[in-house]
Design brief:
There is one protein chain. This protein is an alpha/beta fold and 181 residues long. The chain folds into two domains: 75 residues, Ubiquitin-like (UB roll) (Roll), CATH 3.10.20.80; 83 residues, Translation Initiation Factor IF3 (2-Layer Sandwich), CATH 3.30.110. Helices cover 38% and strands 29% of the residues. The protein is built from five helices and eight strands. Strands 2-1-4-3 form a four-stranded mixed β-sheet. A four-stranded mixed β-sheet has the order 5-6-8-7, with helices on one face. Strand 5, helix 4 and strand 6 form a beta-alpha-beta unit. The chain is elongated. The protein starts with a helix and ends with a strand. The mean pLDDT is 86.
């Protein structure tokens, strides 16, 4: 029980980024100066003193190398640049969402055209569209109407998207997913 409490209540060591200055554990490090020049393998304390003389920090760049590679630079600038890179990568990634359009097998032509027009907008934005045709009561006996509607949707969407999930029954509804080309 005591062991559990000790582990549970210990402070969690959150990752604070790369090790710097006195947090570097290796006795020797490969040092790169602030202007990019390779200074060779130095004693860690000697490397830290060199960095402090320049008014900078010794930052561990490649901790898994043998010996670890460290660079003399400003820690604040290093963290700022890393944050900038992360934000750029986040900005460039594309998040694809799934939009759903619900219909019935007896949907009128105007409603159908309106929903297909909206689906084309979604696909043009880069989203996937899930078409759902819900059957109620005796409409289930006329599943061919759902198949006809799905094939009409496929035909109308073939110039802008392709079928990812072909029409299939899922309980009392028929589902099809279309993704951008």
């Amino acid at each position: 029980m005591a062991d559990f409490k000790q582990n549970y209540f210990q402070k969690k060591n959150k990752d604070r980024g790369p090790r710097s200055n006195n947090r570097i554990l290796s006795p020797e490090v490969q040092v790169i100066s602030s202007d990019g020049e390779n200074l060779g393998i130095l004693n860690t304390n000697e490397a830290i003193n060199k960095a402090k003389n320049e008014g900078l920090d010794l930052i561990e760049i490649a901790p898994n190398a043998n010996p670890p590679v460290c660079k003399i630079m400003d820690m604040g600038k290093f963290k700022y640049d890393a944050q900038k890179k992360a934000n750029q990568a986040k900005k460039k990634q594309k998040i694809i969402s799934l939009k759903e359009i619900k219909m019935r097998p007896v949907t009128e032509t105007h409603d159908y055209e309106f929903k297909v027009k909206n689906a084309k907008k979604f696909i043009a934005k880069g989203d996937k569209v899930k078409f759902t045709i819900r059957f109620k009561g005796r409409e289930l006996q006329h599943s061919h109407l759902g198949n006809e509607l799905m094939s009409k949707i496929k035909e109308d969407m073939k110039d802008i998207g392709k079928v990812e999930l072909h029409p299939k029954f899922d309980g009392k509804q028929m589902i099809m997913v279309i993704q951008p080309l």
